[in-house]
Design a protein that fits this description.
Length: 83
């Protein structure tokens, strides 16, 4: 694992200052950013759950049509081979 040097720490502090100063001037607070991040994560989880529900429903509906057709075609092939 790479070592964290003083140079790295100073760069991180400078970058944080360069990003944080404009955000502070625009009126943002750390709490607002954390709340926004929590909201974003919650929305992404809800979207994923919705997508997963749709995908599983679609899979089940498709399987209810495809699997019986596949079984009939396999049985048909077996019957053709025997005759």
């Amino acid at each position: 694992m790479p070592r964290i040097t003083l140079s790295t720490v100073l760069r991180l502090l400078l970058a944080s200052l360069l990003v944080g100063a404009p955000l502070a001037l625009l009126g943002f607070t750390p709490q607002e950013l954390l709340d926004g991040l929590r909201g974003l994560i919650a929305a992404l989880i809800a979207d994923f759950r919705g997508w997963l529900s749709f995908a599983l429903t679609s899979l089940l509906l498709g399987a209810l049509v495809v699997v019986p057709i596949w079984l009939v075609s396999r049985l048909w092939q077996l019957l053709k081979r025997r005759s």
